[in-house]
C-alpha cells in the first residue's frame, strides 16, 4: 500500500533525526564539561586573593591565570565546531551557564589587573568567541552582564577581606567601581528574568561595600586619596 | 542612644496622628473585606444546594415544586446576601472587592443558568443575570421611574421581577463618624445616592466562568437522563454543549482560568457524546418488527 | 574618566539590544496571534463534522477550509520575515505550539479529503513553510509528529460521532489508519519529553476506536468491505 | 434554532469585552513604561547624594529633580485618561509598582528638601493624582505607605554614606525621623501582604540607623544639637 | 532560671503526648490490618457470585460469609478498645477506608440475602459497632453512604454477569434497586469531598444497569414480573 | 425502559424516607462546620490585632494601657467567639471539627502566649490556656463549686479569672426539633448537661504549634528593642529562643507542620543571634575612659 | 600542614568516586537502550495479533518472537556484567521499567502459546536472569507482577479485537484467565505504590472482558463449551 | 486445574515476600528511630556551645558526647544486622539522612576537640561502620561530604556566637578552616543533586565567617596570632 510505506518512511526518518540530535547533545556535553573543569581551576586560582596573603600577590595570581585562558579558547573552538550552522539557540541552554561563568572570570581577572571594567569585546577575545552572532559562536549581551553581576558580588567580598588583610585603600576603589556598575544597571529596563533577579542582589553588594568604607572612615582608617 | 527616650512615641506628633488615621482606614477596609468573604461563603453554599435540587428534577416526576423551591432559594440569596454585598460595595470601585466574592458569584451564576436552561432550554443572558442583582433602594425619596433595560425578556413566569424591593433586610448603612475631627474615612460615604440603585456588578468574565461550570452540571443531567429513561435529553444536551464548546474554543487569548475550565468542558462533552453513541448503537439493534413486538409487550405489563 | 564612559557605553548598548529584541518579540507575538486566530477558525470549521449533520457534508466542509489555508500561508510568510537570520531557535517557543496545531489541521484536512496520511512535505506546502532548516523557516519533525498525535485523538472522537450520525463505515477505516500510526510510533525511541507524554495517549485513542469497531461488529452493523 | 444565536451573541459579547480589555491594557503598558523611564531618571539623580560629594550638593540635586516631576504629572494625566470610570482596581496591577516607586521618590525628595514626612496629599500633588478614589485616578493608601517604607530603607543607607562624607549631623536627624516612622507603622494592623512583608524590614533599617548614631556617639562625633 | 524548667516541662509533656499517640496509632494499625485481611476474605467469597456458576449458588455463598463477620465483630471490639474516649475523629483516617469497605460488604451480603437495602443500624450490628457516636465506636453516616455507593457499582457488574450466567430476572431487580438508591442520593447536598466524587460515578452504574435491562427488553428476554 | 416510570421517585418509599433523614443530618453538620469556620476567621483577625498591639509596647512608653486593651480584646474573643465554638461542639468529639478552627486557635495561642511572655518573661502553660477556654454554664441549675484545676497560678493580676461567667452572649442553644417523628439528628443534642462546663479543648499539638509561631513575634520584638534602644531585651530573648529551639529540636518524630515551623524558628533565632553579636561587637569598641566621657556628655543633653 | 593535604585527598578521592559512578551509569544506559530496542521489536511483532488476520496466525507470530528473546538474553548478560557486586539496588531505577516490560512480553508470549500463566521462573529463563537475588542479576517479584498486570490490560484489548475478527471463543478463555489473575491479586495486601496503582486498573480490564462475554451471550454468539 | 494452583502459588509466594520485606523495613525503621534519638541527644549537647557560657566549656561538652557515640555504634551494629546481604542500596533511603547527620556530628565533635577535619575513616570508626562497601555496612562518600557541609554551616553560627561570648580568637580559626573546605569542594564537578544544592550554601557560610573576622579586625579585636 502506498501510504503505509509512507508511514514507515516518516518514522524511520524521525528515528535518524533524533539520533543525530542526541549525538550532538552528547558531544556538546563532553566539551562543556571540560570547559567547566578549566573554569573551576581558574576560579580556584583567582579566589586565592581572599586568602591571608592573597591581597599582596594579586599580580602574580593574575599571571598564573592568563595562560589558563588559552585552554578556554581551545575548548571554545572545539565547542563551536560541534554546533550545526544556525542552531546556536537550539542548544545554548547547555553552555549558557558556563559562558556566564567565563565572562565573570574574564571580568574578575581584568579588574584585578587594571581596575577597569572589561568590555564585551575583551571578554569575547579572552575566551575566544565572537561578539556578533553573525560572525560565529558568540557571547550574548545577557550572558556578559550576568558575568558583571557576579563580579560585583565577588568584589564586595574582596572589600571585606582586603580590610582583614590590612589593605584599606582597595575598598574605596571597589566602592567607586561597584557604584558605577549599579548606576549603569539602573538605567536598564530589565525584564523579569534571571538577570533581573540577579540584579536585585547588586544593591546588597553595593550596600556592603559602602558599609566597609563607612567603617574605615569612622575609624579614621581611610587612606588619603 | 540615651536620647532615645526623647524620641519615644509622641502621641501629639502629627506623624502619629496621621498614622492613627491610616489605622482606621485600613481596619475599615479589612473589616469590609471580611464581611464580604463571609457573604461569599453563604452564597456559595446556597447556590450549590440549589444546583443539587435541580439535579433532582426528572422528566417523569412532578417538578414544579422543585423549581419553585429553587426560585425561592435564589431569590432569597439575592435579596439577602447579594443585597448586603451591594450595600457594602456601594460607592466603591466594583473591582476592588471582586476577589472576595468572585467564587460565590460564579457558583450563583452556575445555579441560575442551570435553572434557566432546564426551563427554557437556552442560555440565560448576562443582562438578565445582572438585572437580578440590581436592587431598588428602599430609602430613595423619589421613585425610580425608568425601568432597567436589563429586564428578563422571555423569562419564565416563575422568575420574579428582577428589580425587587428591598424591605425585609435590616442592614444599617455603615456611617463612618469621625471622632477627632480628622477625616479618617478612606472614602467619604455620605453622598447623594437617592437617584442611584444598588447593584452587584457582574464583569463579563465572571459570567463566562459561571457558564463554563454550568456545562459540568449539564453533563450530569445528560447521564442521569439515560439512567432515568429519558433518551432524548442527552442528544439535546450534546448539541447544546457542542455549541458552547465551539464558542469557547473560538475565543482568542482567553485567560488561564477559562482555559482550565474549557479542558473540563471538553471532557464533559466527550462523556455526553459517548452516551449518545451508546444510545444510538444500542438503539440500532432493534429490527422494526421486534420493536413493535416489544412495545406491545410492554403495554401489557 | 576613561572607563566610566566605557561603562555607560556598555549599558546604553544593552538598552538598545534589549529594545530591539523586545520589538522583535512583539512583532512575532502579533503575527502568531493572527495565525492562531486563523487556526481557530479552521478548527471550528473542521470540527463541525462532529455535529449532527456534519458527517454527511465532509467534502463541503473541507472545501470551505482550503482557502483559509491561503491566509495561513500569508501569515507564515510574514512570520518568516520577522525572524532574524539564524535565530529560529531563539524565538521558536513563541510559535511552536501554533505550528503543531497547524500541522494537525493540515493532517486532519488531508485525512478528511483523501483518508491518507499527510507527509511532512505536504504539511510544509499547505502551511507555507520549508521542510529543511537550511531552506528557511521550517517545520521541525517533532512538531509534525505532534500534529499526527493530535490527529489520532481527533479521529477517535470522529469514530464515535460518526456512528451516532449513522455512518458505520467510517470507524473501520479510522481503526485501520490509527493502528498504522500506532505501529509507526512504536518504532521510535522517544525521549521523555512532551512528545512521549502525548504518545502515551495514542494507545487509548486506538483502544477507543477498536471498541467502536467491536460494537458495530457484534451488532452486525459493520458494512461489507 | 433559538438558543444558538443566543450562544453566539453571548460569546461575541465576551470576545469584544476581552479585546477592549486587551486594548486598554496595552495602552496602559505603554504609558507605564514611560513613567518608569522617568522614575528611573529621577532615582538616578536622587541617588547621586550617596556619591562622594553628593551630600554637600543635596539642594542642587533636588532642584534638578523638581522639573522632572512635571513629566511625571503629564504621564499620569495620560494614564488617567486610559482608565474607564470605576475600573481602577481592574487594572491597577499594571501601575501599582510604579506608583509606589513614585511615592517613594516624592517622599525622598521632600525629605531631602525639608526633612519632613510627605503627606499622601502632597504625594498626590507632586505626581499629579488624586487622594480620593471618587475624584479620579488616585494613589491608594497602601501604595503611599509602601513608598514610605522604601524611604526608610534609603535613609538608612544615606545615614551610612553621610558619615563617610563627613556629615555627622544628618544621621541624628535621620534616626529621629525613621524612629517616628516606625512608631507610626506599628500602629497599623497589616494583613499578611506585601506591605506587611516590607514593614518587617523597617525594624532593620531603624536598627542600622541607631547603630550609626551609636558609632558617632561613642566617638564623641555627635554634633551638639 | 525560672522559665527554663517551665519550657522543658512543656516539651516533655508534648513528647509524652506524641509518644502516646504513636503507641495508639500502632496498635490501631495492627488491628486494622487484621480487619482488612478478613474483609479481603469476605470479598473474595462474595465475588465468587460473578463466576460461572456463582449466580446459582448465591445463598450458599452468603452462608459461608455470615460466620466470617463474627471475626469482624471481634476485631472491631478490639479496635474499639484502643481508642480513647472522644478521640474517634483523631484517628479515624486509619480505619475509615476499612469501615467503608465493611459497610459495603454488609450491604452486599444483605442485598444478596434479601434484595433489600441495609440500614445503617443493620450495618452497625453486622460489623459490631454503634450508630451514635455517644454510644461508643460508631460508623459515620458518610462511611455508610460510601459503602452503599460501592454496592451500586458492584451490582451493575453483577447485572452484566447474571445475564452471562443466564439469569435474566436479576438485572430487572437490580435496576429497580439502583434507581431507588440513586433517587435517595440525589436528595443529599454533598460537599466537594470523596463522597461527592464517588457519587458522581453512581449515574454511570445506573446507566449500565439500564442498558442491560434495555438489551433484555428488546430481545424479549425480560421475564414476566 | 418503559417501566421506568413505575420506579420513579416514590416519596413514601422507606429508602427515600431514610435518605431524607440523611439529608437533614448532613446539612446540619455542614451548617455547623460553616458557622465554626466563620468564628475561626474572626478569632484569627482579632488575635492578629492583639499581636500588633503588643508589638507596640516599648520599654520607655507607658504600656499599661496597651496591656489592658490586649487583655480586654483576648477576653472578648474568649467570651464571644470561643464560647460560641464551645457551644457548637458541645457533646461532639472535640477532634471532629478541629480542622475548622485550628488556625484561629493557633493564632490565639500565639497572641495569648506573647502577652504572657511580655508580662512574665516565661512561657504560658497549656493548662492555663485551656482554663481560659473553659466556661461556666450560665443556665446551670447548680453552681459549680469545684474550681478548675487549670487556674493560672502565677498569673499577672491583669489577667482576669479564666473561668468566666457567660452572661453577655446571646446564643440560643441549638435545638433540633424533629418534625416528622423520625430522629434525624445525627447526635441527640438534649442531654443532662447541667453538671458539665463548656470548653474548647486544646490538643497539645495545637498548643505547640501556636508557641512555635510565638517565636517569630519574639524575634520581631528583639530587633525592635535594638531600634528603640533597649539593649538588654535581645539577649534575654536570644536565650529564651535558644531554649525553645533546643526543646523543639529534641522532639522525636515531630509532625511535618512542626518541622516546617521549626525551620522558621531557626531562622528567627539566627536573626536574634546576629543582633546580639552586633551589639556585643560594637559595644566592645568603647574604651573605658571614652565610655565615661560619653555618658557624662549624654547627661548634659 | 597536615590536615590540608588531608582535605585535598578527601576531595580528589571523591572526584574519582563520582567519575566511576558516572562511567557505570553510562554503560548501563547504553545496554538498557539496546534492550529497549529489542523489546520494542518483540512488542511490534506480538501486537500484530490485533490486526485483521492476526488472530488466525497467532502461532506463527509466536514463532517469530522466540528467537528475538535470544537477543534479550545476550543483552541481559551484558547488563549483568556492568553492575558491581551488591549494587543491583543502587542502579536498578535504570532498568526496572525495561525489566517489567520484558516480563510482560514473556507473559504475553507464553499466554499466546499455551494459554497459561507464566511463572517467575519461566520469565527469568526466557529473558536470561536469575530468580533469586543471591544467584546474580535477578528479577524482583514486584517487577514480575507488574508484567502480569500489563498482560491483563493487553488481553482485555485482545478480547475485543478477537470478536471483531470473528473469534468468539477466545474472549471466554480470556475472561476466565483474567478473573483468576484478579482473584490472585485481591489476596495481596499491597502497599500504596506503583503496583497498587496499576492493580486498580485490573478491575477495569476484567469488567471490559466480562462485558464482551455478556455481549456474546445475549446475542447467542457464545460457542458451546 | 494445573495453572490455577500455579496462580495461587504465585500470589501466596508474593504475599510472603512482601511480608518479609515489610518486616525488614519495620525493623530498620525502629533502629533508625533509636539512632535518630541518640543523634538528637548528641546534637543538643553539642549545640550547647552556642549558649552563653558554652564557648568556655567546649572540652567538657565534648567529653559528655564521647560516650554517647558508644550508643550510636551499638545501634549501628544492630542496624547492620537487619540488612540482608547485598541489599544496602535497596533500603538506604531509610537511613541515609541519619547517616549524614551522624557524619556531621562526628565532624563537629572532632572539630571542637582538635580543630581538624575528620576523615571518612574516622567518621566510620566513630559511628561504627565500614569505609568500603565490600567490608559491610558502610558510609558513602556523598553522605560524608553532606556531613561536612552541615559542619560548615554550624561553624559559621559558632563564629558569631563565639564573639558574643567574648571569644575573639575562634572566628579566625573557623574562617581558615571553612575557607579550606570551600577550596576543596570547588574542585568537584558536582551533579545537580542534593549535594550540589547544599554546596551552594557553603559560600554564604564562608562569607558570614569572613565578615565576622572583618568586624573583629577593624575594631582591633583580632588577637595576635
Ligand atoms: Mn458545579
Ligand atoms: Mn505571627
Task: Explain what you see.
The complex is a heterooctamer, with six copies of chain A (about 220 residues) and two copies of chain B (about 300 residues). Chain A has about 220 residues and is mainly alpha-helical. In chain A, about 75% of the residues lie in helices and about 0% in strands. In chain A, helix 1 (about 1-45) runs parallel beside helix 4. The N and C termini of chain A lie far apart (about 90 Å). The radius of gyration of chain B is 26 Å and the shape is elongated. With about 300 residues, chain B is mainly α. Chain B starts with 13 loop residues before the first helix and ends with a helix. Chain B has eight helices and two strands. The longest helix of chain B has about 40 residues, at about 15-55. Classes of the chains: A mainly alpha (about 220), B mainly alpha (about 300). Chains E and F meet through helix 1, helix 3, helix 7 and helix 8 of E and helix 1, helix 5 and helix 6 of F. The complex binds manganese (II) ion (2 copies). One manganese (II) ion binds near residues 51, 110, 216 and 217 of chain B.
